[in-house]
Design brief:
The protein has one domain (2-193): SGNH hydrolase (Rossmann fold). It is built from seven helices and seven strands, in the order βαβαβααβββαβαα. The chain has helices at residues 10-23, 40-54, 66-69, 82-98, 131-147, 155-159, 176-193, and strands spanning 2-7, 27-30, 59-63, 102-106, 115-118, 126-129, 151-153. The strands form two sheets. Strands 2-1-3-4-7 form a five-stranded parallel sheet, with helices on both faces. It has a two-stranded antiparallel ribbon with strand order 5-6. Helix 1 packs across helix 7 (176-193), helix 2 (40-54) packs parallel to helix 4 and helix 4 packs across helix 5 (131-147). It is globular, with a radius of gyration of 15 Å. It comes from Paenibacillus antri. Residues 58-181 form the SGNH hydrolase-type esterase domain.
Length: 194
């Protein structure tokens, strides 16, 4: 059976089980169900652990963004300013290609207003966010994806279909309906790659 790996932050953790359920008869879907992929450098490390544990994959679907753009006090700038973000996305792309997997990169979902919210996966981190940051990071990632001929799963555009962007009460994470829509779109793109 074909193998698919899902990588990413708490947004991925919100849709991964739905993707697994949608694809259960078509492929085996893997992800770390105990750990948030956080920022791109952490996702790079996490991907390496999962490649070591499970071997080759046919498709890797992944997202990063909120943690990278987060300005966590007392830091004065983002965890990964855009140039560093792109550097680590390139590293992740390189490792996925060494694994011989097809790649799908998912954009960061929009936020309605600037603010902050605790990460909902138990890390204890407060994520600061602004839609201006989301747009800038997404644009940089989409340019890289175009240069690298990588399929983009535009979750940003998908969430714009709802006036509240399918946001739950914390204004960062998604409602169950939003996660289900993300899963459906991710599963569709994964099936196209398989």
């Amino acid at each position: 059976m074909k193998k698919v790996l899902l990588l990413g932050d708490s947004i991925r953790m919100g849709y991964d089980e739905y993707v697994r359920d949608i694809l259960k008869d078509k492929c085996k879907v893997y992800y770390d169900d105990t750990d948030n992929g956080r920022f791109a450098a952490y996702t790079l490390w996490q991907a390496n652990q999962l490649f070591r544990k499970y071997g080759k994959f046919d498709v890797v679907h992944w997202n990063n963004g909120y943690w990278d753009m987060n300005i966590e006090p007392p830091m004065a700038e983002a965890v990964h300013p855009i140039d560093e973000y792109i550097h680590f996305l390139k590293r992740i792309i390189g490792e996925i290609r060494r694994n011989d997997a097809a790649i799908i990169f998912a954009t960061t979902t929009p936020v309605l207003h600037s603010g902050s919210s605790p990460d909902n996966t138990g890390t204890g981190v407060n994520i600061k966010y602004s839609n201006d940051w989301v747009v800038q990071y997404n644009e940089a990632a989409k340019r890289l994806a175009a240069e690298e001929n990588i399929t983009v799963n535009d979750l940003y555009a998908l969430m714009l279909q709802d006036k509240n962007y399918y946001k739950c009460e914390d204004s960062l994470h998604l409602t169950e309906e939003g996660y289900k829509l993300c899963a459906e779109q991710a599963a569709k793109l994964i099936l196209e790659k398989l």
